[in-house]
Structures
1.
Amino acid sequence: QVQLVESGGGLVQAGGSLRLSCAASRLPFSSYAMGWFRQAPGKERELVAAISSGGSTYYADSVKGRFTISRDNAKNTVYLQMNSLKPEDTAVYYCAAAPRGGRPVQKNEYAYWGQGTQVTVSS
């Protein structure tokens, strides 16, 4: 069955950087759009960044200029490079896959989800 596994989360100080990875298996990866979501305690899960099968990207206003989403189809992996981290970036980050290759921005467009990885940014 389809599996998405995130890695790379951890504890960093404000201003620091982290690189998240999401490895996909049992999935025609290159045909899927991929997204990164995050959920802070007591808050709704929100889209952080998305990348289409053709490489078009979307970023939430709160992270634009600081985060970069990319994909390596040969490795079936999507990445989220996070720079200039702020305490408000603290959340569980989830990788998700959408079967339509466009640039999905709604949660219900994503069919598969990873287990999440914790990112904590201290002040």
2.
Amino acid sequence: QVQLVESGGGLVQAGGSLRLSCAASGRTLSSYVMGWFRQAPGKEREFVAAINWSGTSTYYTDSVKGRFTISRDNAKNMVYLQTNSLKPEDTAVYYCAAGGSRMLAAIRQKSGYHPDYWGQGTQVTVSP
């Protein structure tokens, strides 16, 4: 079992930055692939970024490449999403997620994402 709690969301003007954090408890964080997803009102939840067990490989959806950076600190049981150059279309609830090899495979295939655990989300609002 893993419990995930996100923080760091807020209201930011376009062009600003936020650092989202995900604190994990339960099992050792290094056992999981970690990811960030987001969901805007009336929209499907979409993949944003992921990082493998050791932090040596990262994955991003095209719309955030060059602007967002995912990182992890297994010793602190923390995962981060640094969001720069924010745009109004980035407005959404951002969810931290943990999974295994199926999740990573789905991300690589860009279909059928399969996290095992979800956080409750943190709101990011970007004003024009």
